[in-house]
Amino acid sequence: FAKSYVNRIWGYLLGVGIIEPLDDIRAGNPPTNPELLDRLTQDFIEGGFDVQSLFRTICKSRVYQHSLETNEWNQDDEINYSHAIARRLPAETLYDAVHRATGSQMHLPGLPANYRASQLLDSGVQLEDGFLALFGKPPRESACECERSTGVMLGQALNLVNGPTFAEAIADPKNRIAQLVGSQQDDAKVIEEIFMAVLCREPSAEEVAAALDAFKAAQEDQKRHADELAAYERERLPVKQAEWEKSQAPVIWQPLDLTTLASAGGATLTRQDDGSILVAGENPATDKYTLAGQTDLAGITGIRLEVLPDDSLPAKGPGRAGNGNFVLNEIALTAAPAADAAQAKPVALKNAQSSFAQEGLPAAKAIDGDPTGASGWAISPKFGEAHVALFETAETVGGEPGTTLTFTLEQQFGSQHTIGRLRISVTTSPAPLKLEGPPAPIAAILAVAADERTPEQQAELARHYRTIDAELARLTALAGEAASSPDGYRLVGAQDVAWALLNSPAFLFNR
């Protein structure tokens, strides 16, 4: 026990054990310095297993006090302790150190504020971003030291640069950095305090100058945000709005006059005044609707299936199941010249969209070629409401002297999950088709030719577009921060300095 413990503490303090790996003590794996291990073991036993005394002995030794600097004779030495070996801070220590240096509150899941990661007894406590696991905190599934990793990987480097643990600690509005900036007007003094907090030393003159450049850069960024916003509104916004207006041509749908209405299960399909089809009568467990009608449209690019509520349906529908649901397993379309039904050809459908879909049953499954009950479009739990599914045609359909379109709707889910009321429309608007367009008042303005719009309409259109332009929102937010806090650049500069120091080897490594 004594020899194992001494070797373990030596390995913790110097980065490599006298016997390595630390817990591989056997005759076939001898120590690199047997006399050293024997002497430390003897002192540990004679001292009554005094751990503090063991730490003092090691830390007061010349070996422990070696620097990282190497020469041509020892630069590749990793076992003879001719120089110190740099090691990344363990996961828990790194987490605690970041928060201690920045003065921010620690928030470990399910634990009081400022509970340290190094105090954790349960290996199951993990941060949402996986910081502790990423940096090698062992899962404690075995007693092997090899469970803990202290290497440096790309994922860790990326996390240090843009991960939430460092970011939240630095950005905490109540941390040491924010307090320093608020209470100390001398930027050089702020920099000195940050160096002391993170690296426990004062900065050199060169480091102070570099840090002051970070403050200056933050100030320049602040001014640039205001300039960028003005330039964007002046130059890019009108162009982007014009492009957006061209892309918002409304999709014009024409309801089909369906004259052939059939149910394989014996249900009654009746055409309503609004062009919809209401299903009544027999309600079989499964069904297949066949709906056909003629159209004079040429170049059809898509179809729209509306499923509609009705007071005659269970839970107002739009399905005939007891709760108002339905499952459309497959919708298929064939097209034939109006004068020759024998020339009917299947029309492939693509790019399914829907206003709503039950989890796991999107509209795309209604055109996946699987008509069985396991795949299809459904709308639970939004019963008693109208829903829409849109499908583009792989090729344009229709031409002179008219076209007969035949739809088959497979509903093989069982349990009477059939559609209770529906309407089918077609369009010749160019693809890609949009399920939803702009709000009705905006759509009405867009329907007016650009050179015929009134000043009020133009202003309303511009106001609407400003609410949906993401880049404008981003630049406005940045410029707004600058306007609300003219000295805010000092906090940004201080945070940048802290971020750089926290990512430096002097902080991340314990030598």
Describe this structure in words.
The chain has 511 residues and is an alpha+beta fold. 37% of the residues lie in helices and 15% in strands. The strands form two sheets. Strands 1, 3, 4, 6, 9, 10 and 12 form a seven-stranded antiparallel sheet that branches. Strands 2-5-11-7-8 form a five-stranded antiparallel sheet, with no helix packed on it. A hairpin with a 5-residue loop joins β3 (267-271) and β4 (277-281). α8 crosses α14. The chain starts with a helix and ends with a helix. The mean pLDDT is 90.
How do the strands and helices of this protein lay out in sequence?
Blueprint: H1 2-14, H2 34-46, H3 51-59, H4 91-102, H5 131-134, H6 154-162, H7 164-171, H8 176-183, H9 187-199, H10 205-247, E1 254-255, E2 258-263, E3 267-271, E4 277-281, E5 287-295, E6 300-307, E7 330-337, E8 345-347, E9 349-354, E10 387-397, E11 403-411, E12 421-427, H11 440-446, H12 455-468, H13 470-484, H14 488-502, H15 505-508
Antiparallel strand pairs: 1-12, 2-5, 3-4, 4-12, 5-11, 6-10, 6-12, 7-8, 7-11, 9-10
Summarize the structure.
The chain is of the alpha+beta class. Helix content is 37%, strand content 15%.
